């Protein structure tokens, strides 16, 4: 590691434009400022949010050059002034939805897991303390941050509110998945829905987040977990993790919600929309049981299209809510999830489908584009 307080030169995968191959090059990483931490990334992975940002699918994601990535684990290299809950050498996981612990949101107990300052913000591309970047390329040009983390680099600087210290005995490669996908899906089942033994669930979209919902419902003892996906290959992975039934909308001649109502005595207790598709969201809503069903939105919807929902449909007792980061308060609650993973209560191995060295990051992107991977783990050491 470089001397503390000094600029570090390291490799990073830099995005210079939408859809362009990432450029693995040397960048300069400044030391952490007040309430910031510089970490050495050991593992990082790619999710569909990174893919969407790389494509430039929304205005919020079009700041260039930029270092993407928001799922990662590593060790603390140095800490800035005021950081007291972490020290050099601590194992940490980066989180995009931070927790300062001091604001009215963070002190709200179970009302919200958002933070006044460090909640997820796709428009934010600089550090909170001074509005500047901590990265520069070889020409001295500032490189923008992404989702408060920027993990496609050997070293990154993040606000301490966006780092979670975890058990030093935890396997860091697996802990990487807690940065986003697994926590989001599993938390939606545990926290947002609070699935109970014997209840029924439908999951629309069996990517990593959807399968994490399946894992969460399985650990809670759901009696029926229906997986819905247009890719027939998702049935195999879904059954390995815990789905009890599978529906391919292309293979049935009735709307999906009608099929689910038929399979679940009038509808499931909870449905989870993980596809980012408006029509799929409506089907998820209608697939829940009259009187008490809840549809949970997890998919990212970048288009300006609005949900087709008549207010009177809500008088049937069905509800629709969204879940950010699985309603986990990252710094205070993620260590417990890590413990559950270490104890084997939550199984993470099925989510890691590929492993590649960091310099093959563009190959990892292609695997996700082609629908061949759930999580490709990139190792930087």
From TrEMBL:
Residues 34-167 form the Alcohol dehydrogenase-like N-terminal domain. One of its GO terms (molecular function) is S-(hydroxymethyl)glutathione dehydrogenase [NAD(P)+] activity. Its cofactor is Zn(2+). GO terms for biological process: formaldehyde catabolic process. InterPro entries: ADH-like_C, ADH-like_N, ADH_Zn_CS, GroES-like_sf, NAD(P)-bd_dom_sf. GO terms for cellular component: cytosol. This is Enoyl reductase (ER) domain-containing protein. It comes from Solanum lycopersicum.
